[in-house]
Amino acid sequence: MLDEIPLRHESAPAGRRPARAPRWSVDDVVALYELPFADLLHRAQTVHREHHRPNEIQLSTLLSIKTGGCPEDCGYCPQAQRYHTGVESGALMDIGAVLAAACAAKDAGATRFCMGAAWRGPKDRDLEPVLDMIRGVKALGLETCCTLGMLKEGQAEALARAGLDYYNHNLDTSPEFYGEVVSTRGYEDRLETLDRVRGAGMHVCCGGIVGMGEPRRDRAALIAKLASLDPPPESVPINHLVQVPGTPLHDRHGGACAIDPLEFVRTVAAARITMPRSRVRLSAGRRELGEAVQALCFLAGANSIFYGERLLTTGNPDVDADRELFAKLGLVPA
User: What is the pLDDT of residue 12?
Assistant: First the structure.
């Protein structure tokens, strides 16, 4: 069966780039998932080595610059104001505090600093101080990324002029399963924001969440949708659902939302094979995976992590734990 799935990651002839990324159908990606585990990992590792240094890990640190009070109803998110999760709505952080956090992240080894705000989308008056933050972080020599919600006309261009390198806006899941998770923002709304980001000349950071109760075919459909973006995202965060008490996805159906760890590894491998040039990032839920599953994910082609003790509102392995894991695996920061 391994030889029956078409190789879709060949490089273009010298001096010529393909007009667009090859298309992957949902059935193609399901077929990858169904490969014997060793065959799937071998293929993913082969693709990975063709396009990346195999033992390098890119380190990104994520900071919540405006926490809580979001009007959306994303079923996984503790920052939605309608859920009782203990997350209080806060004001936008002071630029001095943001730059101090960025300095600490750089000192710890991060090369990209990501800033997230719990907005449906920024108002223009909200955007102005964020532009100053981007300029300040860039001046420190770090790559910059923001996730601020949906962007209106002109906002992506303003972010690009300030020097933003990446904009994160996840698709979350497949188009078919999306309505089970979110109702206040449509799938096309997400795609429109991604189009604005591309149009402004920025890199795209876009991935999803697995373990929300979706069947395998929906995980495959998410990967196929990401891989079919033209071009595919430069960064692809793969999140393992962290079930936060008070959110609708906490312990739904008596724990049926949980995903088998090896299925998570298969998802990483499918992302690597279908998006060979992208950074595939282990994101939320990494602490819950443990060292052995993380090691399999790196073998499957993950080459980026969120680095630091905390993500937006949930915990993450601490820096010392990650350094110990890197030493065990012979991984070095990119």
Answer: 35
Known active-site residue 297: no
Look up 74 and say whether it is catalytic: yes
pLDDT tens digit string along 195-219?
A: 999 999 999 999 999 999 999 999 9
Which pTM value belongs to this model? 0.90
Choose, from 43, 70, 190, 219, the residue flagged as catalytic: 70
pLDDT band at 328 (very low <50, low <70, confident <90, very high): very high
Q: Do the beta carbons of residue 168 and residue 146 sit within 8 Å?
A: yes
| Nearest by Cα to 131 from 106, 100, 156, 103 | 156
Of 77, 146, 257, 297, the catalytic one is 77
Spatial distance between the Cα atoms of 311 and 330, rounded to a whole number of angstroms: 25
Percent of the chain beyond pLDDT 90? 73
Phi-psi region at 154: left, alpha or beta (left = phi > 0; alpha = psi -120 to 50): left
Q: Return the CA Rg of the chain.
A: 19
Our CA angle for 268, 271, 275, nearest 5°, is 145
Query: Which residue did the predictor score with more confidence, 117 or 13?
Result: 117
Nearest CA-CA partner of 239 in 66, 76, 28: 76
Catalytic site includes residue 257: no
